[in-house]
Design a protein that fits this description.
The complex is a heterotrimer of chains A (299), B (102) and C (254).
Chain A (H helix, E strand, L loop, with lengths): L20 E4 L11 E7 L3 E8 L2 E9 L4 H13 L11 E5 L11 E2 L2 H13 L5 E5 L4 E6 L5 E7 L7 H11 L3 H8 L14 H13 L4 H23 L5 E4 L6 H11 L13 H19 L1
Parallel strand pairs in A: 2-5, 5-6, 7-10
Antiparallel strand pairs in A: 1-4, 2-3, 3-4, 7-8, 8-9
Helix pairs in contact in A: 2-8, 3-5, 3-6, 4-6, 6-7
Chain B lengths: L1 E8 L2 E8 L18 E5 L9 E5 L1 H4 L2 H4 L14 H5 L5 E3 L8
Chain C lengths: L1 E7 L3 E8 L2 E9 L4 H15 L9 E6 L10 E2 L2 H12 L3 E7 L3 E7 L5 E8 L6 H10 L4 H7 L14 H13 L4 H23 L4 E5 L6 H11 L12 H11 L1
Parallel strand pairs in C: 1-4, 4-5, 6-9
Antiparallel strand pairs in C: 1-2, 2-3, 6-7, 7-8
Helix pairs in contact in C: 2-8, 3-4, 3-5, 3-6, 6-7
Classes of the chains: A alpha/beta (299), B alpha+beta (102), C alpha/beta (254).
The complex binds iron/sulfur cluster (2 copies).
Chain lengths: 299, 102, 254
């Protein structure tokens, strides 16, 4: 699998957003596939479309979510299909997932992110995965699953911004640091500072401002913030319990400033993300789409 | 599956856990809950399960701390919560209790 | 006997000087990093107003979130205890006390002799405290005072779904885009805090007289929402910030 990530041109600098990407797996002739399924994950920040041919990843895209969920879903799909010659009509079954899952007009079924992430991670990382942490723009999910990707325990926190991508965006905005640079910068410190003590994002932001005013260099503040974020996510994981292999999906998986600190805190190895980690939900959805389509065919 | 509904915020952890292995979908928990926290339906986290299962109502999940407060007074002793008591298979449990801490 | 009370709040530090139970002077300053120094500063300010010096004070009671670290105080009082004591001293008929500060909200039920029957607290989450109005007022570009007042002019109640101050901000931005009036937005924010506070108040139990204290008692918008939710009129002391400090000073006298 090669991932030809294209970065889209930015008009205005938005410090807190990840770049968009799309990719096609080379060497697959989709016209020979007996079943083509699609998974659409409409998240709060970005939306992904995954196309699978006979249960194999064929193409995907990841884009910003606009104000309108149906349109975001459609845009993600069109971009995934771009240049493949495949048309939306060629798809046999589509499953929507994510926070806007009920707003995917062309999906036959909506399935929660919980089920889809477990299934998707099982596919992307292999059957040894037992714990999946997904930190998205507005929520944090911890999922424990068996070797088939079936959920055994889960918990989801979508009430509180602390420990979510939103919490990271707030600090990125406050300090005018692009979100993808936070991880690297946070390690450019003489020594690891104590974590920001407030959990609540509102109070943590005030605390970070205070630290800057008291003369802390920017990188040190970032380190303290990332560490607090890792601790906070770690606490949630411990409630569900942690077991090997441990995989991380969602936007936060790309933030090494949090990932490395979390691995240290939990004393566990986190599988390196070999794919665009944001697509796990959509991959799971496309896999469920295959099962459901086959179920229907049998009827 | 242990389905944990609720949240953790700056003030603490508030989760209601439903053990879907134990839940038989009887719906006995719906009536006794004064805040209408439970619903019965298909398992939204297991699309391949056919039997109905209990879940915490989506709109209530983010407010559990406040919703369950009247069932968990600090000064009075409470043996069992109405929802826990109503569930004969013992599928419901809470992660927090209001304890008198001064 | 002269006693002093210090209330180490999350946003401000309050100090009062009592002489035989009567308030001689009070002083309020913003909090900061060096708590101990600031506590002293707040106390010195109050002493100056009372034209007294530290050696005139027999006992010093301290309360508040950071109360453990003030070495010159000789009595530490919990916030709940100080609130109840101060409230009952000034308003003997009160049985339920609601305290809303910058970072915490509390509801306390007490007996006529000041025994605490039950209490509920929200702390460390901005959604149930004063900081919420502060960040929301910034989002719609009003001062906190204007924000409180404009809420009274609201013509319709819109529910704010987000239970987090951060997510609520995005929701408010959406409301601004939808051309919702500032008054209705302010009301929605106050209704949201009020819903959480009144859930706590109802849990501990509402007595006939309910006293609202803490800095947020000055927010007329929030008070209106609370009165509506609780279906009564809360009593508000003239200087609602100082009740905890008064309670601490009273405890120090015992
Ligand atoms: S703790 Fe802060 S970030 Fe979390 S829900 Fe409360 S207001 Fe939001
Ligand atoms: S504790 Fe009470 S309010 Fe909470 S879920 Fe159980 S019955 Fe409902």
């Amino acid at each position: 699998m090669t991932t030809g990530t294209e970065k889209r041109k930015e008009k205005k600098v938005e410090y807190w957003k990840w770049p968009e990407s799309r990719s096609t797996t080379p060497g697959i002739d989709w016209t020979k596939a007996s079943i083509i399924t699609c998974g659409i994950d409409v998240g709060s920040v970005s939306s992904q479309a995954v196309i699978m041919t006979d249960g194999k990843l064929f193409a995907y895209s990841s884009r910003r979510t606009g104000y309108n969920s149906p349109e975001s879903a459609r845009n993600a799909l069109n971009w995934a299909l771009e240049g493949t010659g495949m048309k939306p009509e060629d798809i046999h079954y589509t499953v929507g997932t994510g926070y806007g899952r009920v707003n995917v007009p062309f999906a036959q079924r909506a399935i929660t992110e919980i089920a889809c992430h477990a299934r998707g991670a099982n596919y992307l990382y292999g059957p040894s995965v037992r714990t999946i942490l997904d930190v998205g723009g507005q929520d944090c999910k911890v999922i424990r699953c068996d070797e088939r990707g079936k959920v055994e325990t889960f918990l989801m926190n979508d009430k509180c911004a602390a420990g979510t991508g939103r919490g990271m965006e707030i600090i990125a905005d406050l300090l005018s640091v692009p979100v993808q640079d936070i991880g690297r910068l946070s390690f450019e410190v003489d020594e690891e500072p104590p974590p920001v003590s407030s959990t609540c994002t509102i109070f943590a932001k005030a605390e970070a401002t205070g630290l800057l005013e008291s003369g802390w260099p920017l990188n040190r503040v970032l380190a303290a913030y990332c560490r607090a974020m890792a601790h906070r996510i770690g606490e949630l994981i411990l409630r569900a319990g942690v077991a090997k292999d441990f995989a991380m999906t969602g936007g936060m998986a790309k933030n090494e400033g949090v990932v490395k600190r979390l691995a240290k805190e939990l004393n566990i190895d986190i599988l390196p993300p070999s794919f665009d980690t944001q697509i796990a939900g959509a991959v799971g959805a496309a896999l469920f789409a295959k099962v459901l389509a086959e179920k229907e065919q049998k009827k | 599956m242990l389905a944990n509904y609720g949240y953790k915020d700056g003030s603490g952890e508030y989760f209601i856990t439903i053990d879907t292995e134990k839940c038989n979908g009887c719906g006995a928990c719906i009536e006794p809950c004064p805040e209408h926290c439970f619903q019965i339906g298909s398992d939204e986290n297991d699309p391949l399960r056919d039997e109905p299962v209990a879940a915490v109502v989506p709109g209530q999940r983010q407010k559990l701390k406040y919703l369950c407060m009247p069932c968990k007074p600090a000064g009075r002793a409470v043996n069992k919560l109405p929802c826990e008591e109503a569930c004969t298979p013992g599928a419901i449990s809470h992660s927090w209790y209001h304890v008198l801490q001064r | 006997m002269i006693t002093a009370g210090i209330d180490m709040g999350s946003a401000t530090i309050k100090a009062v000087i009592l002489k035989d139970g009567k308030v001689l002077a009070q002083n309020i300053i913003d909090t900061g990093r060096e708590k101990e120094k600031l506590a002293k500063e707040a106390l010195d300010g109050a002493l100056k107003k009372a034209k007294l010096s530290l050696s005139d004070v027999e006992h010093i009671g301290v309360t508040g979130v950071g109360y453990k670290i003030i070495p010159f105080a000789d009595k530490q009082v919990t916030v709940v205890g100080a609130d109840a004591k101060g409230a009952l001293y000034l308003f003997p008929s009160v049985r339920t006390v609601i305290d809303i500060g910058a970072e915490e909200g509390r509801a306390i039920k007490c007996t006529p002799d000041g025994r605490i029957v039950d209490f509920a607290i929200n702390e460390k989450c901005a959604a149930g405290a004063g900081s919420f109005t502060e960040s929301m007022s910034r989002a719609i570009e009003l001062s906190v005072q204007e924000f409180a007042k404009v809420s009274l002019e609201s013509t319709q109640s819109i529910p704010l779904n987000a239970q987090c101050a951060v997510f609520a901000e995005s929701e408010v931005v959406g409301l601004i885009h939808a051309k919702t009036s500032k008054a209705d937005i302010a009301r929605a924010v106050h209704d949201g805090i009020s819903a959480r506070i009144s859930a706590m108040a109802r849990t501990v139990g509402l007595g006939k007289d309910v006293l609202l204290i803490g800095g947020m008692a000055r927010n007329v918008g929030l008070v209106a929402s609370l009165n509506k939710d609780l279906e009564l009129e809360v009593m508000i002391p003239k200087e609602p910030e100082f009740i905890g400090a008064i309670g601490a000073a009273l405890s120090a006298a015992e």
